């Protein structure tokens, strides 16, 4: 299918876009259970970066699943396709010179590895939002855990679908132990050297 696809070389390079912006592009990948605080944390980090004149964009589970990936379910193969499309989207944003914050449950190690390969290791920062299941379930902001426990949602991560814990994340945050402001500080300190143009 790919044999007649020949990429065009455009004159403006990624390096030139990086110079124009004054910072490198990165993908900050927030993974964790539903309700763990991925979006809240991504939102706070994005605000901090924006205030430093860094060009950002956030891709978030619920938003992407309403549009680009509205055809996908939560079956394992569809979750993999969800993450593959997001990885390719993030890759385009990175080529454009933008710091992308992506907040997805992304429960499978192999899918997160695929993201890392797609955007290249140097651009990838894995942030494990390690809030315990009991706390996520207690928060149950969207009422989904209650539904899953009643058997109304199949394949719900942490209840009747697996979450594979990251082995070597760049940052781990348990939102029951670490205030958001401290978590933001830790993440900013981790990425600062990687942002240097
Ligand atoms: S995944 O696993 O990465 O493909 O999931 P993601 O695209 O991040 O979507 C997660 C949000 O969808 C809601 N939701 C579910 N999550 C997990 N399992 C099942 N079965 C499910 N059904 C719906 C849930 O609100 C997730 O949002 P967050 O923001 O993570 O709470």
Automatic annotation (TrEMBL):
Q: Is Kinase set as a keyword in this record?
A: yes
Residues that bind ATP: 32-39
Q: Which UniProt keywords apply?
A: ATP-binding, Kinase, Nucleotide-binding, Phosphoprotein, Transferase
Q: For this protein, what is the EC number?
A: 2.7.1.25
Segments spanning the bilayer are none
Q: Any idea which GO molecular function terms this record carries?
A: adenylylsulfate kinase activity; ATP binding
Q: Which CDD domains does this one have?
A: APSK
One of the GO biological process terms: hydrogen sulfide biosynthetic process
The signal sequence is none
Catalytic residue list: 106
What pathway is this protein said to act in by its record? Answer: Sulfur metabolism; hydrogen sulfide biosynthesis; sulfite from sulfate: step 2/3
Q: Where is the APS kinase domain?
A: 25-174
Q: Which reaction does it catalyse?
A: adenosine 5'-phosphosulfate + ATP = 3'-phosphoadenylyl sulfate + ADP + H(+)
Q: Family assignment?
A: Belongs to the APS kinase family.
Protein task = Catalyzes the synthesis of activated sulfate.
Q: What's the protein name?
A: Adenylyl-sulfate kinase
Q: Which organism is it from?
A: Marixanthomonas spongiae
The beginning of the lineage is: Bacteria, Pseudomonadati, Bacteroidota, Flavobacteriia, Flavobacteriales
Gene name tied to this protein: cysC
């Amino acid at each position: 299918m790919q044999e007649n696809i020949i990429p065009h070389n455009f004159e403006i390079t990624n390096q030139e876009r990086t110079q124009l912006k004054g910072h490198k592009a990165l993908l900050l990948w927030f993974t964790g259970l539903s309700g763990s605080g991925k979006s809240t944390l991504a939102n706070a980090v994005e605000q901090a970066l924006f205030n430093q004149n860094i060009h950002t964009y956030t891709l978030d589970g619920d938003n992407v699943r309403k549009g680009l990936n509205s055809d996908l379910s939560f079956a394992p193969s569809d979750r993999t396709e969800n993450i593959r499309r997001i990885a390719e989207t993030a890759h385009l944003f990175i080529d454009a010179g933008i710091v992308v914050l992506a907040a997805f449950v992304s429960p499978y190690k192999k899918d997160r590895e695929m993201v890392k390969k797609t955007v290249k290791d140097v651009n990838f920062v894995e942030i494990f939002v390690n809030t315990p299941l009991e706390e996520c379930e207690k928060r149950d902001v969207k009422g989904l855990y209650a539904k899953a426990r009643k058997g109304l949602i199949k394949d719900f991560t942490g209840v009747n679908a697996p979450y594979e814990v990251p082995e070597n994340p760049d940052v781990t945050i348990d939102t029951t132990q670490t205030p958001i402001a401290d978590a933001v500080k830790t993440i900013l300190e981790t990425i600062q050297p990687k942002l240097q143009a």
